[in-house]
């Protein structure tokens, strides 16, 4: 790659760990973008808007860099599933998910001012949650405390035991950054990846 610095427009430890798997040097920069949902905005459109807003905000401050912005919006039965933040909201989300399915829209925007390119894509993962008893929900919350995860679970941890199945094209998308297409976008911009 011709000297462009790679930046992940995120403070998410999950996205940082995922991008690190590609073994490219990168920095993380907080995008400082308002993530409030707009009235009537569909989940997929919100994810796309926020991924691009994050990448654009960081690219404006670092114009010589390639910037990756990503956002994930989950929806179950027409209701958005944000990060619960605490046990009470986590319990409510897991009860809503019990015996149901949810769609997780993970949008990515990769901006390269040097190449005057913006590459965007969305990966949608559907999780099918098995029926959960209150006792199972309580044990899970106590064990993992997934308060910083949309839907109130960590699929890469004990949360996998909550599912009947996961339908996806990229298993890393549910964690927060679909690496298959992200790696493809970076290759398209000239990054050397195997």
Cα(first) to Cα(last) distance is: 14 Å
Would you tell me which CATH topology applies?
A: Maf protein
If helices are DSSP runs of H or I spanning 4 or more residues, what is the number of helices? 5
Which series of helices and strands comes N to C? Answer: EHEHEEHEEHEH
Whole-number average pLDDT?
Answer: 94
> What structural class do the secondary elements suggest?
alpha/beta
* Low-confidence runs of at least 5 consecutive residues: none
Q: Keywords, please?
A:
Maf protein, 7-stranded mixed β-sheet, 5 helices, 194 residues, alpha/beta, 26% strand
Structural commentary:
By secondary structure, the chain is an alpha/beta fold. Strand 3 (65-76) and strand 4 form a beta hairpin. The chain has helices at residues 13-20, 43-61, 87-97, 134-144, 179-188, and strands at 5-8, 27-28, 65-76, 79-81, 101-112, 117-129, 163-167. The chain has one domain: Maf protein, CATH 3.90.950.10. The protein contains five helices and seven strands, in the order βαβαββαββαβα. The longest helix is centred in the N-terminal third of the chain and has 19 residues, at 43-61.
